[in-house]
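Protein fold
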Amino acid sequence: MEVDKKEEIASESSEEQVVNPWEVSAKDGGKIDYDKLIDQFGCQRLDESLIDRVERLTSRQPHVFLRRGVFFAHRDFDLVLDAYERGDKFYLYTGRGPSSEALHLGHLIPFMFTKYLQEAFKVPLVIQLTDDEKCMWKNLSVEESQRLARENAKDIIACGFDVTKTFIFSDFDYVGGAFYKNMVKVAKCVTLNKAMGIFGFSGEDHIGKLSFPPVQAVPSFPSSFPHLFPGKDKLRCLIPCAIDQDPYFRMTRDVAPRLGYSKPALIESSFFPALQGENGKMSASDPNSAIYVTDTAKDIKNKINRYAFSGGQDSIEKHREIGANLEVDIPVKYLSFFLEDDAELEHIKKEYGEGRMLTGEVKKRLTEVLTGMVERHRMARAAVTDEMVDAFMAVRPLPNMFE
C-alpha cells in the first residue's frame, strides 16, 4: 500500500531529521526542512488557490495563520472544500496532551486556528484531552493526568469556543462504548511491524505505548460520538494540528476505508520556535525558552529582551549599514504569528531588514503585542468556572451544531 512506501521514506530520512509525536530534531542542530518533510510524509503544500477558496467560501478574510503560511501543508483539505461547496458539512477534531499546568503560546496556536475554522465554516468540534497518553509517556499518575486535563480544558475554553458546537473529552472519562469498538477495529488492522515503522516503537517501550495510537485515531470517525453524529457515519473530519502529529493520521487514513469511513483530512502547521532560536526547543524544564500564558507583563518583557534571539547586527553602525537578518530573528517570527496587521508587519520587516529600525524597537513592539494577548487570555481563563468545564465535557447532543 501507498502508506508503506512513505513510512520507508520517513524511516530512511530519520538520520537527517526526526519529526514524530514525541521528538522533533533537525539535522546538525539546524532548522527543520519543511519541504523535505512534505516529501517524506506525502502530504501536500497548502497553496494560494486553496487559501483564496477558503476566503470565497466563508466570505471572510483568511486567518493570519493561513495568510502567513503557519499552516502550510494538508491532506485532502481540497476534498473537504469540494464537499462543503456541494452543501456537505464536516466536523473538526483537534486535541491536547495535558502534561503541564501552564500552556505556552505554541500550545495555543492550534486552538486559535481551530476556533477560526469553527466560526468560519459553522461546524461542530471535538477536542480530545489525551490524559492517558501523558500518564504513559510522562510518568504521571492517573490522578495527576486527569487534574491537568481539567486545568488545560480551562485554557482551551478561554480561547472562546462555542459550547453549543463543542465537545471536550478526556480519554480516561470517555473511552468506552462505540469509541472503544472503533479502537479495537483499528487495532486489528495495524500490525506490530507497521506500528514500529510508523512510530519508532522499540522492544524497550511498554505495551501501553503500543496500544495508544488507536485512541488518537478514532475521534476521526463520527461513529465514535453517537450522541453527536447518530446515523452520520460518512461525515467528513478535518484535523488542524502540528505536522509532528501526522504519523497518527497516516495510520488512520490507511485504515479508514477498510472500516467504511472517509479518510480524515488534515491541515498542518509548522513548529513554533523557542525564544533562543529555531534550533532551540521550548521545554517545560526551561521556563525561559517560551512565553507562558501565566507570565506577567514583567516576565514577558524580561524574556523577550534577554532571551529572544536577534538577527540584528552587533553594532548600531553595522546594523544601519546592512540591516537585520530576518531569517533568524525570533521577534520578527513571533510578530509574524501574532501581529494581526499585515501592513504593520511588512513595514517592520522592511525597516528592520534595511537597518532603519533597531532590535530594541522590534522587541518593544513584540512585548506590547504579547503582553496584551496574554492578559486577554488570563482574564478569559479567570472567568472559566468548573461548571463551564462540566458543560463542555458533558456527553450531550449539540442540536444546533451546523448553524
Q: What stands out?
A: The beta strands are 18-20, 23-25, 44-45, 71-75, 90-96, 125-129, 166-170, 236-242, 265-269. The longest strand covers residues 90-96. The CA atoms of residues 30 and 157 lie 35 Å apart. Residues 359-382 form the longest helix (24 residues).
